[in-house]
Amino acid sequence: MTLHISRTRRAVAASAGLATAVALALLPGTATAAPAAPAPAKAAATTGPELSYIVNVRPGQGNSARIKRAVTQAGGSVLQVYDRIGVLVVHSANADFAQRIRTVRGVESAGASRTAPLPAQSTTDVGTPKRLTAEDLKAAAVKAAPGEDPLEPLQWDLKAIRADKAHEKTLGSSRVTVGVIDTGVDDTHPDIAPNFDRAKSVSCISGKPDTTDGAWRPFTTGGSPHGTHVAGEIAGAKNGVGITGVAPGVKVAAIKVSTQGGSFFYTEAVVCGFVWAAEHHIDVTNNSYYTDPWYFNCKNDPDQKALVEAITRASRYAESRGTVNVAAAGNENYDFTSPSITDASSPNDTTPGSRVIDPRECLDIPTQLPGVVTVAATGAKGLKSSFSNYGLGVIDIAAPGGDSTAYQAPQAPATSGLILGPVPGGTWAYMAGTSMATPHVVGVAALLKSRHPHASAAAIKTLLTLQANATACTTPYDIDGDGTPDAVCKGGKHYNGFYGAGIADALNAVR
Asked: Which of 115-124, 381-390, 457-466, 473-482 has the lowest average pLDDT?
């Protein structure tokens, strides 16, 4: 039993890989001509649809003339080189490209990043956003206390992590920037515009940075509200309009990585996003998605192994440059410590099949990557959300992501158990998912960075666990009250599979 939510990653909104949740420095070397194994013979005529590929080489060797020549001879063309981490983004219509390029000396792994032809969202939200009506807006504004933004009475989630009390001490520093790696952000929204950083925003959907003005916004047609909602949860301005974010004084940048409609988050785009964050002084990234087209990437598959390696390099590079990467756990009520999980949604860009995977060998990325802070979701009663994935040793921390109001109803004046946030077009809507939980933790991390501006990424991650309120396992966990446990929590009060180190607390972070 799961509530349909957003995992892009991890919100309550429809997506191809509902999970909108999500969810990682090397110096470049000088390329040298190598003696070596002969490059593959020039590829024959086009044998299939054009796909995007990831080719991993030793850092510093991505611009090697020999490697580029081998790519060409295998029937590929290089779109982008991330030389510091040794990752190339390549396009090819040769069905044998990956197999051929893997034989080249110096290529460590390679694989197709998709199964659908170019151009082809998997967020971690659940369901379709529920927009506020004009009557809702008026009713909430009447209940706002002095100093509150008009919709703050509906934000039970702020009180759940004591963000309202934290704001009495600080709103966060404008010198701190959060990067929302997502479906794009509507920077014209009145709750986002005051804190938006245009200079650090980009579109990475092709795998290559596009800094054209406005490229970071959601697509005009079929654009997803996910990234805008996430950005508002983190840094919605406290300006007398709409909602208030967890850290309403920090800056937010959009790093758009999903295809039109927010449908797919491919590896080349995610790699671009992490590298951009690393090289543009992004302090914290929000990753509320999983990387398509595979929910779990198995390291015994040569294509999927290459995707895991590329994103691992990119996320670690970002962390080495001071960026804290935070990801949503996902929305399928999966236990990441179970011996097996049935994945019936992959590949989600063509025809999914059912496969049984070992979650220790097949990874949800970036959620399960080393160094990434993984976030589970809680509802208005402080219990694990019905949909939230879990697992001892995987979940680092928990935060409000919403749940069915029937399961976890908030206290008045709030009326919905979902999370309220801005959506494109200057309006607001409710969403839910680990996608919504993650920006709460990101907001707290931004407050910590504001208070400790010289702290390393590792130090901020440690402080995140120290400020959390330890929360014991919910036992038995029967969220729908039907007499049958819906999940089993393992661990003690101070660290367990449902809540990790505990539930985030913004007030503890700033005092």
From this structure: 115-124
Residue 399's Cβ-count burial label (10 Å; 0-12, 13-18, 19+) is buried
Closest CA to 21 of 339, 352, 480, 398: 398
Where helices occur in 298-351 by DSSP H, the ranges are: 302-320
Cα atoms in the 13 Å half-sphere on the side-chain side of 131: 8
39: which DSSP letter?
P
Tokens at 29, concatenated:
């070397």
Distance CA 158, CA 154 (A): 9
Weakest-pLDDT range from 8-12, 141-145, 305-309, 348-352 = 8-12
User: For residue 20, what pLDDT is reported?
Assistant: 36
Please give the Cα distance from 98 to 94 (Å, whole number).
Answer: 9
For tokens 């004591």, name the residue: 162
- 202's tokens: 């980009």
Exposure pattern of 495-511 as b/e (b: 16+ CB <10 Å)? bbbbbbbbbbbbbbbbe
> Residue 394 phi/psi, 5° resolution?
-110, -45
**The residue to which tokens 């390549």 are assigned:** 90
pLDDT over 70, % of the chain:
89
- The pTM score is 0.90
- Cβ pair 298, 338 in contact under 8 A: no
CA angle 354/357/358 to nearest 5° reads 170
Q: What is the mean pLDDT of residues 239-263?
A: 92
> Closest Cα to residue 9, out of 391, 292, 223?
292
Beta bridge partners of 342: 356
Decide if 54 contacts 87 (C-beta within 8 A).
yes
Confidence check: pLDDT of 14 > 60: no
C-alpha–C-alpha distance, residues 349 and 344, integer Å: 13
What are the structure tokens assigned to 399, written together?
A: 């935060």
3-class SS of residue 495: strand
